[in-house]
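Newbie here. two chains, one complex. Structure please?
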Amino acid sequence: MTIAHVQQDDSRARLISLKREVELIERAKRDPGEFGVLYQRYCPTLLSYVYRRIGDRHATEDLVADVFVIVMRSLPSYQYRGIPLRSWLYRIATNAVNRWARRQRRVACLALEADLIDVSSRSTLYDTGDGYLQNALLALPPRFQAVLSLHHMEGLSVKETAAIVGCREGTVRSRLARARDALRKHLNERR
Amino acid sequence: MQHQHDPVDEALKTLGLRNWPSDYDNHKLKEKIMQDFQTKRSMSLMSRRNALAATLAIALLGTAGFAAAGGLDMVRGWFITVTVNGEDVDLSGADIVVSDDGQEIMITTNGLVEDVDEPVSISVTAEPGNSGSIIVQDADGNVIKTLNATVHNSLTGDDK
């Protein structure tokens, strides 16, 4: 079997899986029971993605629940236009997490202004042993957090990341470089 | 080799290795989604009902205002056509008042009748003997002339 054959088989398998996905979406639009299949398939991915980004279990549960409520409401008007369902779900989740991150930053700013919290105790807000890494990530602007998470942690291509965040591939590359620099700076400050 | 020890790569790798616990009981999450969905749906239904009620209230008020401003007569007037000596008369700009039962029609207009340029009122009666004729009066109520004319109300289907 040649490389060309492997590539051909690979693209055929992708086409079949895409066709099945489109069929599943159409069934889920008509039958709420079929929505459960979508939920089972994508819930673990979204839980992990949101959890990796924010490191807070309760907030992750709330955000993923919000995402699926939005999906349930928006699915009837969803039309497949070449972007896989996974990317659409990632986009909804990314927007939800970005909104959450902005809210958290505002709350933190207000709390700091009022001297309500100690900055050094912020890591205790997160239930992971890597609190300082999480804090360094969350200290970045949400658009930087999003590209770093999607590309480096979720392993998505620059093209798919661009489709999810709604900008050009060049913009994603530039954001990735700036986000890495900003993260490096934060990590150096915290060490 | 230097790249492998990049603190940024290490940090991203560490964060990326964390997975949502597979033994997590997502039954709780399912319930939460269903509750949220039900709450948002009922809120959306409520806001839709409120919007519908507001629209209906505005429509009712608008209709009442329209009727109070003589809109009903105007609408009734759309169905009136006048024929004098077998020819249709242009009633655009005429003030047409039709009674509620559609039996009495008062038309005030300029140039409806030849030789009479000032505003005239035409009273139409359905009394026996006057059938088929209309009386043209001036502003003071003096009879100018009696015409052999037909007023047709297409709303009630009456010819007078």
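Moderator note: The helical segments of chain B are 7-17, 27-68, 71-77. The mean pLDDT of chain B is 68. Thread marked as resolved.
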